[in-house]
Design brief:
The structure is a homodimer. The first copy, chain A, has helices spanning about 5-10, 15-30, 50-60, 65-70, 75-90, 105-115, 135-140, 160-165, 190-205, 265-280, 285-295, 305-320, 340-350, 375-395; strands spanning about 35, 100-105, 125, 145-150, 170-175, 210-215, 235-240, 255-260, 330-335, 355, 355-360, 370. By secondary structure, chain A is an alpha/beta fold. In chain A, helix 5 packs parallel to helix 11 (about 285-295) and helix 12 (about 305-320) packs parallel to helix 14 (about 375-395). The longest helix of chain A is centred in the C-terminal third of the chain and has 19 residues, at about 375-395. The radius of gyration of chain A is 21 Å and the shape is globular. Chain A starts with a helix and ends with a helix. The interface between A and B is large, with 74 and 74 residues.
Chain lengths: ~400, ~400
């Protein structure tokens, strides 16, 4: 007897994946270089050379059992120490290894965070536009994901709706800044307001409400800015980090849970993560990758290409008359479609070999996402297609 | 509000871990080389040189995005093809990539297998002596693990008890051969009998009963023998494999689920594993490790040391009058203690710096486990301590 809930999921096709498959198929017809594939958020720049050098150096010099042996359950001690020291230096909070649990990317980190603070039937709130995988991630734990409608003015937070939906059933609030798909970075004011509301409601309901901060794009922020550190605003913050985007190694599945040192349960929560792992079959990210990443914690891949692409695309979209919030980071932009139904809009774009993803998937119908983690040269070539598309279909 | 079930687990200390910590502490006093630490099942031999060479070669020659990019959800296609081809050649069953789901070690593979075929409240049967982590692995899915008492004659299967406990609620039977902790390899007769019973009961109850075969020790079999391929005996078999022991890289978290090609749901089950992953935060083993392992699928680490150790220990234990089933594989041996309470027996052994694990943990009170994945030289030196222990405490 196969379990029905997973069987049922087989028939639900991901829109992003379908578009990406279309792009691959179309690429076989006309050459992939002629398909302007803005569908997938797959880092396009190489890993830093230091990462590769570190890997080779370790493989050449270290004892096999030291390199490939079991990692202690919360992660390799020296790696957790290095991560804590880096976070302390960067954000001025007293992180220690006791606050760090090494996880298999942000997905692994989130799987632990959700289970730390919610039982089946509890609610988690997130804000549109949002990463659509949050639905299966949360739903399959038995908790319930509810989505606060977007503040379409600037893709910060619709606070009125947020307060309305923040009922007693909500045990955690999930944020993602810099945001996929909008590219927006939450401001200090936004984070302060979130924190104030959570403190007020925690007191009112007599239970803690945790803030789960999904931060895979933390290092991709433009115009010389920095994403404000969420933990500085709210004690009960669980940071979920991934090196996938900062180091361009999404396949290596490496990240961490960092519980705010100011959270009174911080150490206990890290050891609870270890217990949670036993049920999910997680059992630590790969040892060699943990050890290598610890050597390049403060490096990043050459991320400036994303800012270059943002500049080119944003300028052109605005010129063409799109309503568009300027992304402060990530490699996404999320303009308003030129007709009400963004699915129809994106369908029409396919004729011009422009692969755009309708915003419905992200809880923001009427918008569309472009993932510009592609070569700048291709972004430039796509502008002509974009102009033709807008002119021929919408007369602009 | 932290989730109580995980909090509660924090107070339950693993006996094996406690003993291992004792060994480490004692090692600091008298030198670790003088502690005969038989507590942990941690491979002691190095990875094959071919693995290291392959890693370095790939890091030196391959494109970063190809090497470190996202793996497709069921695993990298070429890796699944290579695993399927190797299984087909080895076991004569028509494995194709569609039957293979790459997983983070056997723990990751089991987490998927359990969720494929059990809902909360369903039962999974396993056989004592058994790997104690099966309890949290299963319990945390919401299913219920029930343990069939041991056949202490030869540590095959107590069939009478098995049939008695195989009620309508049982959706899966979990076996582990070569077995941790007994070292025993299930015979063809045993597997045939299991299969016959499962077929009979599946028909009687009108639902499939799956056989989940946990096989991390498949390659560690002694006396030139081979462990019989479980899938050859029963169509509804889910093989859960790990390279941890065969390649000596337990920290790299690499293994797979291989659904029997003869199982009528095989392909569907692999895609169900992908859905399950979204809930557990699994999202594939690391890309570079997948690619490297695919290059050395038919290699193993130098495993013969385990057979050498088995021979030395088995001979000595029998000479000293222990009742002991001769291990056919793994790096464990599971003799009967010299007094009824194996916990007391193992406690006394500590005085001789012999770290043995009481069988209670494995569902077989009165026995004890020795994990002989240590240097042969140390095994030899431990014999003197073993003789003194037996003589001084038990007058033998």
């Amino acid at each position: 007897m196969l379990v029905q809930k997973y069987r049922d999921m087989l028939t639900q096709k991901s829109v992003i994946r379908q578009l990406s498959e279309f792009a691959t198929a179309r690429g076989k017809e006309i050459g992939y270089e002629n398909v302007f594939d803005y569908s997938l958020g797959n880092p396009s720049v190489p890993v830093p050379q230091e990462f590769t050098d570190t890997m080779i150096h370790m493989l050449t010099t270290r004892e096999s059992n030291e390199l490939h042996g079991y990692s202690p359950n919360p992660g390799i001690t020296s790696v957790r120490e290095a991560v804590a020291a880096s976070l302390e230096k960067r954000f001025g909070l007293p992180y220690r290894k006791e606050h760090i649990f090494m996880a298999s990317g942000a997905a692994g980190a989130l799987a632990h965070a959700f289970r730390l603070v919610t039982e089946p039937g509890d609610e988690i709130l997130t804000f549109a536009p949002f990463f659509p995988e949050y639905h299966p991630y949360v739903d399959l734990t038995g908790a319930i994901l509810k989505v606060v409608p977007p503040d379409t003015e600037n893709f910060q937070i619709h606070f009125e709706k947020f307060e309305e939906m923040l009922t007693e059933k909500v045990m955690a609030v999930l944020i993602n800044s810099p945001n996929n798909p909008s590219g927006v970075v939450y401001t200090r004011q936004t984070l302060e307001k979130v924190a104030n509301i959570l403190r007020k409601k925690s007191a009112e309901y007599g239970h803690d409400i945790f803030l789960i901060s999904d931060e895979p794009y933390r290092e991709i922020v433009f115009d010389g800015a920095e994403a404000p550190c969420v933990s500085r605003f709210y004690d009960n913050t669980i940071m979920c980090y991934s090196f996938s985007k900062s180091l361009s190694l999404p396949g290596e599945r490496i990240g961490y849970v960092a519980v705010n040192p100011r959270c009174k349960y911080a150490e206990e929560m890290v050891y609870m993560c270890v217990q949670i792992s036993r049920g999910t079959g997680h059992n630590c990210p790969p040892s060699i990758i943990q050890l290598a990443v610890a050597q390049v914690l403060d490096k990043t891949a050459e991320l400036s290409v994303y800012e270059t692409n943002r500049n080119i695309l944003y300028r052109e979209l605005v010129n063409l008359g799109f309503t568009c919030v300027k992304p402060g980071g990530t490699f996404y932009i999320f303009p308003k479609a030129l007709e009400e139904d963004a699915k129809v809009f994106c369908e029409k774009a396919l004729k011009y070999d422009l692969i755009l993803v309708p915003g419905d998937t992200f809880g923001a119908p009427g918008y569309f996402r472009m993932a510009y983690c592609i070569d700048t040269e291709k972004v430039k070539r796509s502008l002509e297609a974009l102009r033709r598309f807008v002119k021929e279909e919408y007369g602009r």
